[in-house]
Amino acid sequence: MSPLPANLNIKQQILEITPNSDYDFQINEKNIETKLKTGTTTVGLIIKDGVILATDNRATMGIFVASKRAKKLHQIQPHIYMTIAGGVADAIYLIDLLKAETEIYRLRNKKDISVLAAAKLLQNILYNKKGFYQVGHIIGGITPGEGPKLFNVEGYGSKLEEKYTSVGSGSVFALGVLETEWKENLTVNQGIHLAVKAVRSAIIRDIASGNGIDVVVISKDKPVIEKRYEINDKTLISNKFKP
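RESULT FIELD:
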């Protein structure tokens, strides 16, 4: 993800030099647009009686690493967490907005909002603006009435319920791992291992992802588990690395 809006167009002025005879050149000024693409890797998966979310920690501006400790995993309510990808300003604004709206719901109704309702609320906000917010989110959580729920909510307002999913530039690599190894009724330890493995596979191949992995586990009737794994060049390629 990026401190700038996702896919920001940057105008650059260049000089184009072309020969106009055997002994002379013509110089022309041109304006070109360079698109700064953003990157990240976020994953989510359903386990037995719970949900696991994981993200990397790198923020980029084009090919520049803007931050090595970017926080992409946020608590919305104690039973709901959300990952962010895309433009940081847009994503953090939506995090704050969703926190406020879900807390207002809790106070008014004297009960926790469902994961589905929180995802639907975010969907409505995004759909209303139709691509104004350059973001991609994964929302996961659990309530007694729903059980574990996981949603992929994209910037134009699509909302897809999934058993496992990934968002960001590294998602193609992470999804390959999830597609191959996810199964029903994973234990907490198995789920953490798979989530970290999926993000790590993206970090190896995607230059816009890296610098550590954050993980959260939201389980039925158990305290939330939050972990962080430091990733350096040695542990990244080592087969001995285990979460």
